[in-house]
Amino acid sequence: MTVLYEPRPATAAELAALLGQAGHAVRTAADPAGLAALLAADPGEPLVVFGPGAAPADAVAFAAEQRLRRPATGVVLLSAEAGAGLLREAMRAGIREVADPGDPRAVLEACGRSLEVSRGLALPQEIPGMYGEQPPYGGQRPRSPGRIVTVLATKGGCGKTTVATNLAVALAAGGQRRVLLVDLDVEFGDVAIALQLTPERGLADAITMADRLDETGLRSLLTPYRPGLDTLLAPVRPTDGEQIGGPLVGEVLRLARDMFDYVVVDTPPHFSDPALAALDVTDHFVVLAAPDVLTLKNTRIALETLDLLGHPADRRIVTLNRSGSPVGLTPQDVERVLRVPPHAHIPSSADVPLSLNRGVPLAAADPAHPVSRAIADIAVRHLSAPPGPPSRERGRRGLLRRARG
Ligand SMILES: Nc1ncnc2c1ncn2[C@@H]1O[C@H](COP(=O)(O)OP(=O)(O)OP(=O)(O)O)[C@@H](O)[C@H]1O
Ligand SMILES: [Mg+2]
Fold first, then answer.
1. CA of 350 to the centre of ligand 1 (A)
2. Which of 352, 358, 366, 373 to mutate to test the pocket of ligand 1 (most atoms within 8 A of CB)?
3. Where does the CobQ/CobB/MinD/ParA nucleotide binding domain start and stop, copy by copy (predicted)?
4. Which of 30, 36, 198, 299 is the most exposed place for a label (fewest CB within 10 A)?
């Protein structure tokens, strides 16, 4: 059901008719008490639309409150003159869309997109332990094996560590899901620094357990970060990293998949043996690009390499990081170089390096930040449905070596 909050009766009637024609079951409220009563009667409300007669401050306050209490409820604000200040406030509060009430199509599209997100958030069967039955942190095993999500890019500095850490926080959802973040940049791993963790044990300690690693052994190597999120950190000394081979990484990740709902893997900026071993067991590939021609060219090479290795295209989430940076490339330019349109965009923000320096990912410090929201959107839109079947031709590393050599 859709709740419309609009104090002016004529406007309320007009908007209710528009939404009704588009298939919304609309109930209207003219004051805060009416809105509260409607919500109390149906706490699962997926969409609340604030009409142009409502004070934007009320919408902002309402959204900020709902964001944590009922994250599946979408808030859409209809405002003809939303300036940059209001848009920023709206985003921070978690208002999903702001649309011009004079443009019926924009209104319906905004409501449709919000409902799509709510549906994603309300699909308990699609994400193990995600939105439905919530096993307590450290509780029983998930009902089905978790998913391995690997973040990769073939050029350094694209934002792999930024995206992997924030995505892991978003997927863990404050402890609703069990997530393991694995730093496979075994020589120059940055996850410990990005999360301000002290690596007392980590991946290097798995070397002596190779071929006989079990759940207890793996747990002993983890560094907890926050409820629902554990990390497996890279060695402190780059030389220790040299001893971590592909077979060990495969063993670790296959075991981790049985213990966690999601295993998020951060990788080095090249196809190292550990990274290739991770790709072999990966369910979702988050392939990063950035809006400059050199990086885009490298991303295309990464996509071609995934083709060569037989990893299916429908498991890839091509993600343009620092999207919207004023660097003179149009979306068409990006698509022309990549040969595919990006599936996801993460905006550029000075808050990202600030958050890295503070050691607290934006997704943890400010979930309503546009960068946090973009990354949470990847989780909801692209990581909730199970991946398609794996390609029958996976693991053609010989071809890759020939192509490289
Ligand atoms: N969306 C963004 N907006 C602004 N700065 C960003 C964004 N994403 C990443 N950065 C910055 O880019 C730099 C590189 O990011 P990060 O360390 O995550 O990249 P990486 O791909 O892991 O690098 P490496 O290849 O060295 O491991 C960092 O300073 C980070 O703050
Ligand atoms: Mg990194």
1. 11
2. 352
3. 149-361
4. 198
Q: How many domains would you assign to the chain?
A: 2
**Confidence tier at 98 by pLDDT (50, 70, 90):** very high
Residue 135 lies inside a defined structural domain of this protein: no
Lowest average pLDDT, out of 47-56, 246-255, 377-386, goes to 377-386
pLDDT at 193: 94
Helix axes 84-93, 56-69, angle to 10 degrees: 20
pLDDT higher for 23 or 247? 247
d(CA 145, CA 255): 10
Output the ligand 1 site: residues, CB below 6 A.
Answer: 153, 156-162, 185, 190, 269, 321-322, 346, 348-349, 352-353, 356, 371
Q: Decide if 129 is inside a domain.
A: no
Placement of tokens 């409501």 in the chain: 111
Q: Say whether pLDDT at 404 is over 70.
A: no
Rounded Cα–Cα distance for residues 138 and 126 (Å)? 21
DSSP string, 14-27: HHHHHHHHTT--EE
Domain extent for 7: 2-121
Helix axis angle for 351-358 and 160-172, nearest 10°, is 80
CATH number of the domain where residue 296 is located? 3.40.50.300
Question: Which residue has the CA at smallest separation from atom 31 of ligand 1?
Answer: 353
The Cα–Cα gap between 192 and 171 comes to 19
Best-predicted range by mean pLDDT among 120-129, 149-158, 170-179?
149-158
CA of 352 to the centre of ligand 1 (A): 8
